[in-house]
C-alpha cells in the first residue's frame, strides 16, 4: 500500500512540476524538506505521535514550511498529512526524485570495484557508460569490495554488468559442477 501511495503522490507532484515548468525548483524544495525532516527527528516523532491531533500537525507544518518553500510544496505537505500519509513522505520523495532523474536523463549508477578507483578511472568508466546508454549525465555511487579480486560490478537501473574475477570464478565453478554431475549421471546409465 505504501508503494502505491508513493506512486500516486509522487506522480501528482511530478506532474505539477512539469506542468508549471518548475521541475528544478520543486526538486530542490523536496531535497530541502527531506533535509529538514532528517535533521529534526523530533518533527517526525511529533508528526507521527498518535496523541497529537491532526489540526495541530497541520498548523505545525504551516508554521515550519510556509515562506520557506513554495505555496505548492506547503500545500502538498498539508494534503499528505490530511490524508494520513506523512510517514510515507520519504518514499514519496524517493519516487518523485527518480521521476525527475528519468525526465532529465540522469542515470543513477552503482559501481563496485575491488580497490579504490582514481578520478581518472572514474571519468573513463562514466564516459563509457554515457556512450552506451541514453543518459546525458550520471549520478555515480562508488563502493569497494575487496572480495571481487578484479573487474567491476556496474548496476544501472535493473541492469547489472558483473565482470569481476569473483563472478567469473563462481561461473567457472558452477560449470565444473554441472560437468561433474553430468559425468556421474552418464556413468550411472552405463553400468
Structure characterization notes:
With 191 residues, this protein is α+β, with helices and mostly antiparallel strands. The chain is 64% helix and 13% strand. It contains 8 helices and 4 strands. The protein has a 4-stranded mixed β-sheet with strand order 2-1-3-4. The longest helix is centred in the C-terminal third of the chain and has 26 residues, at 165-190. The radius of gyration is 24 Å and the shape is elongated. The N and C termini lie far apart (58 Å).
Q: Quick recap of the structure?
A:
The protein has helices spanning 2-19, 23-39, 41-48, 54-65, 71-82, 89-103, 119-132, 165-190; strands at 106-113, 137-144, 153-156, 159-162.
Amino acid at each position: 500500500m505504501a508503494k502505491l501511495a508513493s506512486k500516486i503522490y509522487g506522480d501528482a507532484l511530478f506532474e505539477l512540476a512539469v506542468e508549471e515548468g518548475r521541475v528544478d525548483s520543486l526538486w530542490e524544495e523536496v531535497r530541502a524538506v527531506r533535509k529538514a525532516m532528517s535533521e529534526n527527528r523530533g518533527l517526525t516523532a511529533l508528526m507521527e505521535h498518535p496523541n497529537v491531533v491532526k489540526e495541530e500537525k497541520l498548523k505545525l507544518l504551516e508554521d515550519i514550511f510556509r515562506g520557506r518553500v513554495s505555496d505548492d510544496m506547503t500545500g502538498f505537505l498539508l494534503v499528505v498529512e490530511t490524508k494520513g500519509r506523512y510517514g510515507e513522505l520519504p518514499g514519496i520523495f524517493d519516487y518523485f526524485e527518480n521521476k525527475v532523474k528519468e525526465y532529465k536523463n540522469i542515470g543513477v549508477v552503482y559501481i563496485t570495484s575491488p580497490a579504490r578507483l582514481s578520478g581518472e578511472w572514474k571519468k573513463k568508466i562514466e564516459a563509457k557508460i554515457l556512450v552506451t546508454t541514453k543518459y546525458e549525465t550520471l549520478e555515480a555511487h562508488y563502493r569497494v569490495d575487496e572480495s571481487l579480486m578484479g573487474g567491476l560490478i556496474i548496476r544501472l537501473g535493473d541492469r547489472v554488468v558483473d565482470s569481476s574475477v569473483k563472478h567469473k570464478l563462481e561461473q567457472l565453478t558452477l560449470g565444473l559442477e554441472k560437468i561433474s554431475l553430468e559425468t556421474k549421471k552418464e556413468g550411472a546409465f552405463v553400468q
